[in-house]
Every structure is written in C-alpha cells, then in structure tokens.
Amino acid sequence: MKLIDGKAIAQKIQLETLASVELLKSQGHVPGLAVVLIGEDPASRAYVRSKDRMCQELGMHSEKFELPATTSQADLLALVARLNANPAIHGILVQSPPPPHIDERAIVEAIDPRKDVDGFHPVNVAKVALGDPDAFVPCTPLGCQRLLLEAGVETAGAHAVVLGRSMIVGKPMALLLMQKGPGGDATVTVAHSRTRDLPGVCRSADILIAAIGRPEFVTADFVREGAVVIDVGINRVADPGSPKGSKLVGDVAFAEVAPKCRAITPVPGGVGPMTIAMLMHNTVLACQRLTR
Ligand code: NDP
C-alpha cells in the first residue's frame, strides 16, 4: 500500500506557484486574493487565516474581510462590487457557509467570473462542463485530480466511483475525471444517498473518491483489493484521549481500508493541503489572465 502524501505534493505545487508569483512580480504584477468571512464560525475563521498566511508566504497580496454575522446582503454585494473593480485583487472568495439570511447564490453570481478562484460561478461551472481550458475549476476536485496525476495513478479507462454529488466536490470531480486528457478519460459513476447497493457500487471502483461528510463511513467492504482511494472527508469527532478532546477523521475508515488499497490518502495530510495549494494556483492563474 502506498500512502499518497498530500502535504508533500502540496508543497511541490506551492514552489511552482512561488516561481509564477516571482515571474509576475518581475513584470510588475502582484497576484492579490480577497477572502471574505461573515460571522464567527471557528472552523471558517481558521480556514480564512490559513489562506491569508499562505498568500503572505508566497509573496502575494492578501486582503481579509472579517465581517459581523449581522452584515446585510446589500453591504456584502457592495463589497463584492468594490473587489470586482479593484485592480490589486485578482481572486475573490466568500467563505462558506454564510449566515442563513445571506443568499449565497446571489453573492457567488455577483463575483466577476474572471476573479472567481473558487470556481463556483455559473460561468465557470459551465466552462468546466464544456471542458473549456479557461475555466476556474473548484479547488478540492482540482487537488484530487492533481494527487492522482502526481501519484502516477492511471485514470484513462479506469472505473472511477465518486461518492457524493455536491457542487463543491462530487459533481465537478466527476466532470474532471470524464474529461479527455491526462487525469481524465475515466469511466465515471456518481453515487449518493439514493444509490442502491452502495458498497457493491463502490467495490466496482478502480478509483474511489469519497466526499460525503460521514466520519469513517467507507469501510473495508466498500473497497476492492488493489483500488486507489482518495478521502475528501474532513470530520471532527470526539476523542477523549487527545488533549483537544477531538480529532479529524475522513469519510474512509482508514485503518481497515488502507491494507486493501494500492494507494490511499490520509486525513489529515491528504486532500486538505491540496485544496489551499490549488486556491493559490487559481489566484495566480487569475492574475495571469487579467494582466495578459
Ligand atoms: P455535502 O454535504 O454538500 O454533500 C455530501 C454528498 O454526500 C451528497 O451528495 C450526499 O447525497 C452524499 N451523502 C451523504 N450521506 C450519504 C450516505 N449515507 N450515503 C451516500 N451518499 C451520502 O458535502 P461536501 O461535498 O461539501 O463535503 C463532503 C466532505 O468533504 C465533508 O466531509 C467536507 O468536510 C469535506 N470537504 C473537504 C474539503 C477539503 O479541502 N479536503 C473541501 C470541501 C469539503 P445527496 O446528494 O443524495 O444528499
């Protein structure tokens, strides 16, 4: 069994990004990312802080907006409009989930698609579906595809089962795997909560991507001997033995599944670091496209 080291692969991508940032700077451009957070959710705050820190490490311009939970839809739309018009900002993301009074879809649609580094704007969703190379691809599935490429996993002709059909992970993941070219050309099945015989469907996978948000749901009986497993799940569960009282686990029961796999990603240290690496990559791409 090979452990796919997402942390090491993410570091390699950050070095590539750093080289691109330096080239852009030599041409007079500094890639800039604006991250908007509404409310006090501690996990979201931690994500926003790490994105801000990563920008600084790469020498990129970063603007962080930590807004109170009472921020109105109109104020948020006004901020997005200002960021759209700001030439120092090339990427805009609004940390999900916003408070319930905010219409998240309207906010995403207000972002200039050329600055939509999360790849959630309908224009980018359509471009991914069309296989348009100018698309911004959502960071998590893009990171999973890159993990497969870096780990030397052949996707062409393989049966890939994507467990989960969200717009953030499952659906774009399936689109990427079925696209023509490197990291694609797979035969793709998308499974979800209405799928009949889920363990049987998953067992037919050469490559299984688990993105359902259920701690350690994918057990050994879901996995064929010799399969490659990518675990997207990030779930905090109680762990009385640890000083924090909790720990992170994936959607895959790692201890029992790993021995059956040809290769598998751990949690933490698998897909997680790739998501942020791809966000930085997309921001540099946005800067390149907006300044060319
Ligand atoms: P969502 O809740 O949006 O989607 C979950 C999907 O899983 C849905 O399609 C749902 O089916 C399906 N599902 C849920 N329960 C079951 C079940 N019992 N059997 C079969 N299918 C099921 O989650 P996300 O896609 O946003 O996230 C998935 C996981 O990935 C979470 O753990 C999240 O924390 C993690 N994540 C990790 C990231 C990273 O950077 N590593 C980034 C983003 C997410 P249905 O549509 O039928 O309801």
What does this structure look like?
The protein is an alpha/beta fold and 292 residues long. It is globular and about 50 Å long. It contains ten helices and eleven strands. The mean pLDDT is 97. Helix 1 packs parallel to helix 10, helix 6 packs across helix 7 and helix 6 packs across helix 10. Helix 7 links the parallel strand 5 and strand 6. NADPH dihydro-nicotinamide-adenine-dinucleotide phosphate (NDP) binds next to helix 10.
Give the % helix.
40-55%
- Overall 3D form: globular
Low-confidence stretches: none
**Biggest β-sheet description:** 6 strands, parallel
Strand content: 15-25%
The total of helices stands at 10
**Small molecules bound:** NADPH dihydro-nicotinamide-adenine-dinucleotide phosphate
**Which structural class best describes the helix and strand composition?**
alpha/beta
Radius of gyration over alpha carbons?
19 Å
